Amino acid sequence: MLVLIVWVVVAVLAVLALGVLAYGLLGARNRLTRELAALERDVAPVAARLQASLAAAAQARERAGQDRDERENAR
Question: Which of 6, 25, 26, 33 sits a CA distance of 20 to 30 A from 49?
């Protein structure tokens, strides 16, 4: 009878430990999700400016290439 009580206590403690672990993991996942959303909000304007700069640089490169081609064709 004592062995049965010990096994029941061990099972209850194991379930309790797993519950605490799951609660902690879910909380960490939720915090990570919030942090990633905040990071995305912080980085979005910088990414937009970077894309605009890259597009402007590509246009400048294209114009420079066209100007070079026109000078070569004029010779």
Answer: 33
